[in-house]
Amino acid sequence: MSIHLHNIAKHFGTTQALEPINLDIHEGELVGLLGPSGSGKTTLLRIIAGLENADRTAQPSKILFGDRDVTNVHVRDRRIGFVFQHYALFRHMSVYDNVAFGLTVLSRKRRPSSGEIRARVFRLLEMVKLEHLANRYPAQLSGGQQQRVSLARALAVEPEVLLLDEPFGALDAKVRQELRRWLRHLHDEFNFTSVFVTHDQEEALELSDRVVVMSNGRIEQIDTPDELYREPKNRFVFEFLGDVNHLEGKVTNGVLTCGDAYWHVDLPDGHEELLLRPHEVRLTEQPTSESHLPVTITAISPVGAEVRVELEADWLAQPWLATVRHTDFEHLALRRGQRLFAHPRHWRRFPNAESKATEQSRVA
Amino acid sequence: MSQLASWRTGSTRVLPGFGLSMGISVLFISLVLLLPITGLFGQLAELSFAQYWAIITEGRVVASYMVTIGAAAVAAIINAIFGLLLAWVLVRYEFPGKRLLDALMDLPFALPTAVAGITLATLYASSGWMGGLLEPLGFQVAYTWVGIALAMAFTSIPFVVRTVQPVLEDMPVEVDEAAMSLGATDGVAFRRVILPHIWPALVTGTGLAFVRSLGEFGAIIFIAGNMPYETEITALMIFVKLQEYDYAGASAIASVVLFVSLALLLAINIWQGRFVRRLHGGKG
Amino acid sequence: MRRIGDAPLIRRLLISAALVLSALFLLLPLVAIFAQAFSQGVMVFWSNVSNTFTLHAIGLTLMIALLTIPVCLVFGVALAWLVTRFSFPGRRILQTLIDIPFAVSPVVAGLIYLLLYGRNGWIGTWLDGHDIQLMFSWPGILMVTIFVTCPFVARELIPLMQAQGSREEEAAVTLGASGWTTFRRVTLPNIRWALLYGVILTNARAVGEFGAVSVVSGAIRGKTNTLPLHLEQLYQDYNAVGAFACAALLAFIALLTLAAKAGLEWRAARREAFA
């Protein structure tokens, strides 16, 4: 079931939560709505669900599920599944009754037999590995378990569209990772179209087929995670999707100078600000012919598969972050207070806020 | 260190005033609440059990139990429905006059019972504004048990409304949204999701209203007619016995009323505790 | 935001039902009180109110209320302090004991005091021997009024003080403050609105108490009639307008009580909005 949004805007009082938005989601896609708080992502999701209504504007606004115009259809009739950040399980019902709820409120014609309902509920509970807790009450379950019940409940009615509002936000890191896997697994199994909201870029990039990056009620970019990371359209997307190192200085005759640091870049004269990713910074003991960027290591922390190295220098307004592989770390015998030279491999610049043009140049 | 042990060894408490506040509280409670109750038992002790039994099972007294309990039950059920409606409307909707309606809910609590009594009696008598309308239709309210139930309902409605209101207010929006997203219509969602959620509060409020109605006096005696065997409430029976200087009789009947009220209150407290425990997974 | 029951038809239906039923059931009696009181004109109302017996009844009622309030205030604060700032065996029992006046019918309340302090009670006989009469005079009325009103202040304070916790008081003590100073400068400012509300409720109940007072007062006109009792006598004497004049005074106090409550709640809501 594809989702098509046309000219969707939303005001709350005097604040504009969503500028007019157009969005197309393909059938069977898992799409993440990513952005900081206030970006409008949750509002957009709730409008898709029918929990909020889009503004009535001069231009007609439309929401289509496949061929079906659901713009004025009540949430209960849109046949969606919704998963809430704080689970919203029915406290007074057992796990079984929660999951079966959607099936038991169907009209008599469409309601399956109680045997069929039972089979379906248990099948779902088995999928989320909670069949042994069917008779427990939500208050007796952990957060992660409650969210799994919530997923099962939303899927029981076999919706064609599954919507999730920061589904793992209330859980701790390990549980979050586990549940991300569940979601992907369920999505691949059932093949519904899925839209989820998150402010965690790691989550968005890991789970989604495509990511919609939002800020201030607007869509900044829609792309696959890979494309977003490699080809960010503007400064906001670039800065939001990971750590960023800033290099500011004046370019004269192809050399960018900043204090006693200098670097050969192929850019016109003038003031420039270049942006780099942590893994795009190489550390060497000697400067090269093209770059002379002396830095001092102020902090070292191994995280997972790499080592994060914090760098400072007087020509830097903000410290830099470089990530180094363990092998290189050992090879260079890095330690605090050590003086090294930074050697950028890629850089990006975003000339001004309006234009989304980017340039990047590879340096040997 | 357990609570008891620290109390016994008299370890210093951080905050001052334990002795003083304990002294005042215990003195007051003993003097004002407990002592007089012993007076009741003192009086009862002068009766043999047979005499006691005879008094509390006398025909007229038993009739008063029926009248009181019956009317209180009817009033409680009416208030459960009316109170739920009012609480719902006050919590869920915005409309002109809402503030006034909210304030009105406390009127029966703030108004002296005697005032309520003569007002209801006058309103619902045949010559009254309401009585004048209802009697031609065949509904006689004054001097019947209907009047008693009405007076009881009037004085106890705040118990239901004020007990249900906060629980409705605290219901998270997501519960509504979850029910709707799963396809439930308003009626089904209310019956299966909202009602079970507020049920404990509703039962507690109705229970409290019932207990209050059992003991109500001033609001009832003006509209009731007070005919023995027909419209005489138990509280009035006690009063009548007192006016006849039958202290023993009054005490016997009072002990029944006291016992029933305290037992009901205890039951409500226990039931509330168990229900709360189940909903919060044993975390009381 | 969509919620259950917000369809326009249902909404209008329920609101109308609530408004109409409340108007008939709750508002109409209120209107009737004043209509009856003034049904023979303002002059008659005035003469009813300024009648000697009425004035005495008003005076007695006010005196009882003014004496009851400080007693219940001290007790309420002491109990709330005890129960929310300390833990000791029997704490729960004390908290449930305070609910007794709510469970007891007012007539029963009056009865148990009469049994104890009346001529034949065991304290009563002792008092009689010393020529002290508590029942059938104003001390008796005061005692039962204290009985029925004592829970209000405590019940307002206890949940509040429990929710507020004792952190601030503990801080004050570590800084060297004495018990009274701590209470006066730390606790009191935090509880003053709940305290005020408790006092307002106590007052409303004290002024309006009927059943218990009926039993112990003897209802002697000009001597032991409180306003509600006086009202009853006027009504039994078929002086409806006179009775409603008293009712109007009492209803006026009730309305002031409601206004004070609404004011305090508005104030609390405003503070929360800025918190």
TrEMBL record, chain C:
<keyword id="KW-0764">Sulfate transport</keyword>
<keyword id="KW-1003">Cell membrane</keyword>
<dbReference type="InterPro" id="IPR011866">
    <property type="entry name" value="CysW_permease"/>
</dbReference>
<keyword id="KW-0472">Membrane</keyword>
<comment type="subunit">
    <text>The complex is composed of two ATP-binding proteins (CysA), two transmembrane proteins (CysT and CysW) and a solute-binding protein (CysP).</text>
</comment>
<dbReference type="InterPro" id="IPR000515">
    <property type="entry name" value="MetI-like"/>
</dbReference>
<dbReference type="GO" id="GO:0015419">
    <property type="term" value="F:ABC-type sulfate transporter activity"/>
</dbReference>
<dbReference type="GO" id="GO:0005886">
    <property type="term" value="C:plasma membrane"/>
</dbReference>
<keyword id="KW-0813">Transport</keyword>
<protein>
    <recommendedName>
        <fullName>Sulfate transport system permease protein CysW</fullName>
    </recommendedName>
</protein>
<dbReference type="InterPro" id="IPR005667">
    <property type="entry name" value="Sulph_transpt2"/>
</dbReference>
<dbReference type="InterPro" id="IPR035906">
    <property type="entry name" value="MetI-like_sf"/>
</dbReference>
<comment type="function">
    <text>Part of the ABC transporter complex CysAWTP (TC 3.A.1.6.1) involved in sulfate/thiosulfate import. Probably responsible for the translocation of the substrate across the membrane.</text>
</comment>
<keyword id="KW-0997">Cell inner membrane</keyword>
<feature type="domain" description="ABC transmembrane type-1">
    <location>
        <begin position="58"/>
        <end position="262"/>
    </location>
</feature>
<keyword id="KW-0812">Transmembrane</keyword>
<keyword id="KW-1133">Transmembrane helix</keyword>
<dbReference type="Pfam" id="PF00528">
    <property type="entry name" value="BPD_transp_1"/>
</dbReference>
